[in-house]
Amino acid sequence: MQASLENHQPHEVVIIGGGFGGLYAAKALAKANVNVTLIDKRNFHLFQPLLYQVATGALSPADISAPLRSILSKSKNTKVVLGEVNDIDSEAQQVILADRIIPYDTLIVATGAKHSYFGKDNWREVAPGLKTVEDAIEMRRRIFKAFEAAEHETDPQKRRALLTFVIVGAGPTGVELAGAIAELAYKTLQEDFRNIDTSETKILLLQGGDRILPHISPELSQEAEKSLTQLGVIVQTKTRVTNIENDIITLKQGDEFKEIAAKTVLWAAGVQGSAMGKVLTQKTGVECDRSGRVIVEPDLSIKGHKNIFVVGDLANFSHQNGQPLPGVAPVAKQEGEYVAALIQKRLQGKTLRPFKYTDFGNLAMIGKNSAVVDIGLIKLKGFSAWVFWLLIHIYFLIEFDSKVLVMIQWAWNYLTRRRSARLITEKESLAFATFEDSHSRNNYTPANNRQPLNA
Amino acid sequence: MQASLENHQPHEVVIIGGGFGGLYAAKALAKANVNVTLIDKRNFHLFQPLLYQVATGALSPADISAPLRSILSKSKNTKVVLGEVNDIDSEAQQVILADRIIPYDTLIVATGAKHSYFGKDNWREVAPGLKTVEDAIEMRRRIFKAFEAAEHETDPQKRRALLTFVIVGAGPTGVELAGAIAELAYKTLQEDFRNIDTSETKILLLQGGDRILPHISPELSQEAEKSLTQLGVIVQTKTRVTNIENDIITLKQGDEFKEIAAKTVLWAAGVQGSAMGKVLTQKTGVECDRSGRVIVEPDLSIKGHKNIFVVGDLANFSHQNGQPLPGVAPVAKQEGEYVAALIQKRLQGKTLRPFKYTDFGNLAMIGKNSAVVDIGLIKLKGFSAWVFWLLIHIYFLIEFDSKVLVMIQWAWNYLTRRRSARLITEKESLAFATFEDSHSRNNYTPANNRQPLNA
C-alpha cells in the first residue's frame, strides 16, 4: 500500500462490468491521470454480437472473447479485479465485494441487462436466451441434441417436434439465429444423419410487431424477411406467445390461438436491467424504468450523484429523442467513452456537452451469405451487405484482440457451410468462476487524500 | 427395419470408441461391403496430442475436435450412435447400451485409457491429468486461477505456493505442458498483472527415470532438457512423488525426501486401460496386464474370440519386441486400420499377416519455437524441429477436418506469444452429454441372416 500514503493520490475511478460500456470507458482512461479499477466476475470481455455464432456451432467461446487483463495490460493505471459486486455505499463512496471493499471517487456502473420473460419466469428454463457464454453453450447443446434425438426417434410426431425450432423475437439476435439454424439444418447437417432428413426441419421466427428488425428501415426489414423465407424460415409477425409447456408452444395471432409442438424454443425477445439497477435505486433513490433500466441525466450520471454514472444496457437515456437508446454495443461504447472524457474534463475544472449518440446504422446477418445494412444513406442487402457485415465485425474484433484469422476462418467455414464447433456439452457447463475462493484473503486498503472532483 | 429383412444383410461391424483407433478403423471400412456402427458417448473426435494447448489457453476445445458425424458423413455404410456401452454379450454377439442392444458380427473395442495414480486415487483431485476436454478445461482453470489468486495474495509464502507449478511425469505431455506454462509465465502474462511478477513463477518437471522423454534418443532427450532449462523449467529426474497434501508435494530423490509448497500439481505420469477391459475379462476370460490393458493376439483379436478386437491404448500388443507398444496416436491409427483390412480379407475368405507397427518416429514440442524430432535417421531440434512438428500436426488435423487456419493462427499466436483462449471455467464445466435422455425411446432391432465370418 506504498502508493496510498503519498499525497495527491490520483482520482480513483471504479468501473463495474467489463462489457462494451465498461471496457471502452477503461480504454479511454488509459492515458488519464486517474487510477482505474475494472471489476468483473469473468476474466474476459465477450463480443456479444457474435454470440449466436457460438450457439450454432460456428465459433468457439474463446473466438469471441478476450482476456480483460491482456486487453488492458498496456494501461498501467488500470487494475483488473475479478469479483462480484454485492453492494454500493454511495455515502462512503465504496463498492462492496464478497471479500473486500473498493473505494471510488467516480463510479461507472456498466453491468448490462439480462433477459426478460415478461413475468413468465418459468419460461426461462424451457426457452433459453442468448446473453452469456453459458447461454450460447446451452443453446448449442439443445440445438444439436435435438437433431441427435430426432435421429434416434421412431415416432413420427415426436420426431417432428424434435425437428421444430421456434425463435421468439425477430430483432437482430432472433433473425441471425433463425438464419444460422436454417443454414445448419438445410445445408451443413444434410449428409450427417442416416435416419432423418434434416431438410424436414421447421424453423419458426415469431415477432409480436408487424415487421421483423423494427429498428431498420421498412424496405430493408422486408428484404430481410424475403431472404429468411428463401432460406426456409417461416416468419410469423403479429404473433404473441401465450404459453410454453410440455414441448407445446401456444401462439396468439389476432384472436386466434395456435399450438405448435416444438422441442426447442429459443428466446430473443425482451431484456431487463441487471440487478445493480435495483441496488442503485435502494442506495441513491434513482428511478428505474419498467424494464429495470436506470434513468440517467443528460451526462449519464444519476440524479443527485454527479460522480455515479450508468452506461450501456443498464442505462435508460431518453434525452435524445424521447425514446431510450437501444441496448446495442455502439451505444454502450459511446456512453463509456463519453463518461471517460467527462471525468477528465471535470478534473481540469471544465465541463462537457451532454451525451449525444451518433448512430452509424444497423446491420443484421441473415445467412446464406446475405445480410442487411442500414447506414443512413447507404442501404445494402445480400452478399455485398454480408461482406460489409463481415468487415465491420472483423474491424471491431481486431480492436481488442487480433482475431482476424478467426473471422477469416469463420467466413470460410460459413461459405463452405462448415460448422465444426459442434461440441455438445452439459447444461451446467461453462459456469464461470466468481473467484470467492481465490479472493477471500485480504481486504483492499482504501487510499487516502484522493483528489476530489471539482464538479 | 426394412433392410434387416433382406437376405445377405452385410456383415455388421460395431466399433466402441471414436478415438484414433476406432475412427481410423471406421474410415478404413468406408468402402467395404459391411455395415459399420461407431458408438461413442461424445459427439466428436478429439485430437488428443494438442490437448495441452487447450490446457494452457492457446487453443479452444473445438479447435482440436471434429464432429464424428461430419468426419463420417461420406461413409454411407457407417452409422454414428451416441451412447455409452455398459456391457458386452459375446455369446449373443451384442453390445448393451443403457437404452438399446446392438448386435455385431465383428466387434472392435477402442475405448482407450484413463489416468493411473498408481493406487493413490486420492491424488486424482489434487493433481488432475490430461486425457479429456474436461481435463484440459480443468487444468486451464487451475493454471489461470492460480495467477489470479497470486495477484490478490499478500502473504509472500502463499503467493510463492500459488506461483509454483509441478508437473509429474516427463513424457511428451509433461514436457509440452512444462514448456507451455513457462511460455505463459515468463512471456505471455508478463504485462498482465499489477501486484505480481509472473517471472517469479517456479515450474518443476519431475521424472522418475533418469532422463526425460525416455522414448526418444538420449541425445535428443538431453537437447530437450537443455531447451526446457533455458526456458526456465526446473527439470528433476530420478524423482518420485510420495505424497500430495494441503498444497504440499513430497518428493523422494534417492534416499532424501523434499517438500515443496505448490498450489498447482499437474499429472502426466501413468495411464491404465479403460473400464471396458474389465468387462472383456469377465465376459471372455481374456487377460489384462498390470495397467489394465487387454493382452491381444498377433492379429489384435482376443484369445478364443476371433471376432473381437482391441485396438489403441486399451490394447497390450507385445508380439513385436516383447514390450507393449506405446499408447500413442500412430499405434492406435495403424491398429484400427489393420483390423479394418483383416475384416475385409476374412470376408473374402483370405487371411492377413499379423499386425506390425511402423514407427515413424517421435516428436515433442518444448516451447519457445523449439521442439525435438526423432525420426529414425532424421533428428531435428530447435526451430526447424518446431516447424516440422507444426507441419505434421497440420497434416493430421486436415485429415479429418480442415483446421488449417486454426493451426496457422495457433502458430501465429505462438510466435507472438498470444494466448487468448484463457477463459476460466468452473470445475464442473464441459461434462459431456451421454444422451440417456435423448436415447431412452426405442430399442435397436437385431438384423437377421447376417453373413458370418469365414475365419
Concise account of the structure shown:
The structure is a homodimer of 455-residue chains. Chain A has 455 residues and is of the alpha/beta class.
Q: Taking all residues together, what is the mean pLDDT of chain A?
A: 85
Structural class, from secondary structure content of chain A? alpha/beta
Q: Percent helix among the residues of chain A?
A: 25-40%
Give the total of domains of chain A: 2
The value of Rg of chain A in angstroms is 23 Å
What top-tier CATH class of the largest domain in chain A fits best?
Alpha Beta
Assembly type of the chains comes to homodimer
Question: What about the largest sheet of chain A?
Answer: 6 strands, mixed
Figure out the total of helices of chain A. 13
Strands of the largest sheet of chain A, in order across it? 5-2-1-9-21-20
What separation lies between the terminal Cα atoms of chain A?
28 Å
CATH superfamily of the largest domain in chain A: FAD/NAD(P)-binding domain
Shape of chain A: elongated
CATH architectural designation of the largest domain in chain A? 3-Layer(bba) Sandwich
Give the beta-strand count of chain A: 25
Strand content of chain A: 15-25%
GO molecular function (chains A, B): NADH dehydrogenase (quinone) (non-electrogenic) activity
Keywords (chains A, B): FAD, Flavoprotein, Membrane, NAD, Oxidoreductase, Transit peptide, Transmembrane, Transmembrane helix
Organism (chains A, B): Nostoc cycadae WK-1
Transmembrane segments (chains A, B): 386-412
3D architecture notes:
Chains A, B: InterPro entries: FAD/NAD-bd_sf, FAD/NAD-binding_dom, NDH-2, NDH2-like_C. Chains A, B: Keywords: FAD, Flavoprotein, Membrane, NAD, Oxidoreductase, Transit peptide, Transmembrane, Transmembrane helix. Chains A, B: Belongs to the NADH dehydrogenase family. Chains A, B: This is NADH:ubiquinone reductase (non-electrogenic). Two copies of one chain form a homodimer. Chain A has 455 residues and is of the alpha/beta class. The first copy, chain A, has two domains: 11-115 and 272-347, FAD/NAD(P)-binding domain (3-Layer(bba) Sandwich); 124-269, 3-Layer(bba) Sandwich (FAD/NAD(P)-binding domain). Chain A is built from 13 helices and 25 strands. Chain A has a six-stranded mixed beta sheet with strand order 5-2-1-9-21-20, with helices on one face. In chain A, strands 13-12-11-17 form a four-stranded parallel beta sheet. In chain A, α1 packs parallel to α10, α5 (133-152) runs antiparallel to α6 and α11 (382-400) runs antiparallel to α12 (404-415). Chain A is elongated, with a radius of gyration of 23 Å. The two termini of chain A are 28 Å apart. The model of chain A is unreliable at 1-7 and 425-455 (pLDDT under 50). At the A-B interface, β4, α5, α12 and α13 of A face β4, α5, α12 and α13 of B.
